[in-house]
Amino acid sequence: MKAQTLLLSCLATGMSMNVTAQDKKQPNIIFILADDLGYGDLSYLNEQGKIKTPHLDKMASEGVVFGDAHSSSAVSTPTRYGVLTGRYNWRSTLKNGVLHWYDTPLIPSGRTTMASMLRNQGYNTACIGKWHLGFNFPTKDGQKPVDKPDEYNLDFTKEITGGPCDVGFDYFFGVDAPNYPPYCFIENRHTVGLPDTYYPVSQDMDSRAGRGLQGWEMKEILPAIEKKAVEYIDRSAESGKPFFLYFPLTSPHTPIVPTDEFADRSKLNEYADFVMQSDAVVGSILEALEKNKIADNTIVVFTSDNGCSPRADFELLAQKGHDPSYIFRGMKSDLFEGGHHIPCIVRWPAQAKPRRVDQTICLTDFMATFAALSGYRLADNEAEDSYNILPLLTASETGKTIREATVHHSIDGSFAIRQGKWKLLLSSYSGGWSEPRKALDGVPEYQLYDLEKDPEETRNLYDSNREIANHLRELLIRYVEEGRSTPGLPQKNDGSYPWKQLLWMND
């Protein structure tokens, strides 16, 4: 009976028998999320690239490389929401843009997250790095936070709630965002020290005005979270309990502040130096796993929250022969591929043989994948846009296509949908910072591209393929109206419905 029960459980979750049985121990999971790193910034992925990323290249040679991976959004906060909930970001109350400094939590306390799910399955869970999903910052008067030179009501002697430790993480160390106040580290629910020094806006650092610790150094943030992550791995290895480490880097996002060790290392610019430092951080994580003899049964995911930011100085890098977006059009913020087509590598020596997979996947998919891996049965109101891609990691043949279609989202809340080789943009412009930045007269209202023949998105085929475009539009309408894109009972989207970015549904 026990053997029969185990077999049925494995079939229900999509797991292979050897994954469940191996050592009778769940694999550790480390999810590394780079910040604003372009697909073309990894030398393994870009044959013309000029930035050397030896640690990521080695990881790619030892793991599964997803060549058609996408973030759920082309900007930061929304993608982080999608990773941790398995739900498209636009279903939340945030319909465009990102959270600002001192904003309240985006993830409701009652929603299942990747962390709460894995903790339920016996994992120790930690978030170390950039949060950018909101906190309830304490104030002296109970009003919204105010942080001005002559007006200030924050009270950092009290607990900060609504963050990682309230959505499933046992431990947190990091910052809200590196260029947002408060300029200090937060550990669990308290600041590390009391931020009482006012810092004005810094254009060089792309930082916002607000309080921080006296003598705060931006360039020390990345080394500090690197050190904490390695220490966490060391402690976890000693405990013997499976662990989940969500490790969202603060790099190579602004402030672009490589340490002295990496200054001018690339011979390109500071951004490229910071990419090389980020690569070295990944090297430290992999080294810690080897040192603790837990590398074999540890899943390490490396990816990025969106495409590269224009603050990398695309023009200067182009002069030196490097394109952070590879062959793709656009950049961070856009519906074009450069906004959300991101690097994604998964290394799991015990189960995943090295290879390249070119099926389309989305970062929301890791929620259902880790659910299957840990034996967690997702309810209808959990991970509504997450597909289990475990077969792509462990099967010798990739088999049938797993995702029905994939929805993309830009900084202004515009939509696109991809199915197979076809991609429909429900917009006549980029949806972000690339040209065209607004609707133009005399051009089709939508854009349709054949990504097999035209991955650079240069030939709009909308007028000659209306039937395909209409099919994709109707599929997206169904995904919106049913509150999910995976099989299951319909769910509700958060916030008002329909919101203004859905006006195309009435065409």
Brief characterization of the structure:
This protein has 507 residues and is α/β, with parallel strands linked by helices. It is 25% helix and 17% strand. The strands form 4 sheets. Strands 1, 2, 3, 6, 7, 8, 11, 12, 13, 14 and 15 form an 11-stranded mixed beta sheet that branches.
Structure, explained:
With 507 residues, the chain is α/β, with parallel strands linked by helices. A hairpin with a 2-residue loop joins β4 and β5. It is built from 12 helices and 19 strands. 52% of the residues are buried. The chain is globular and about 60 Å long. Strands 1, 2, 3, 6, 7, 8, 11, 12, 13, 14 and 15 form an 11-stranded mixed sheet that branches. A 4-stranded antiparallel sheet has the order 16-17-18-19, covered by helices on one side. A two-stranded antiparallel sheet has the order 4-5. α6 packs parallel to α7.
Number of helices: 12
Total strands: the figure is: 19
Give the quaternary arrangement of the chains.
Answer: single chain
Largest beta-sheet details: 11 strands, mixed
Global Rg: 22 Å
**Distance, first to last CA:** 57 Å
Identify the notable features of this structure and list them briefly.
19 strands, disordered N terminus, eleven-stranded mixed beta sheet, 12 helices, alpha/beta, 507 residues
Could you give the topology of this structure?
Blueprint: H1 2-13, H2 17-21, E1 28-34, H3 54-62, E2 64-70, H4 76-85, H5 114-120, E3 124-130, E4 147-148, E5 151-152, E6 171-175, E7 186-187, E8 190-191, E9 197-199, E10 210-212, H6 221-239, E11 243-248, H7 270-291, E12 298-304, H8 314-319, H9 337-340, E13 341-342, E14 344-347, E15 355-362, H10 365-374, H11 390-394, E16 406-409, E17 415-419, E18 422-425, E19 447-450, H12 466-482
Parallel strand pairs: 1-11, 1-12, 2-15, 3-6, 3-11
Antiparallel strand pairs: 2-13, 2-14, 4-5, 6-7, 7-8, 9-10, 12-14, 16-17, 17-18, 18-19
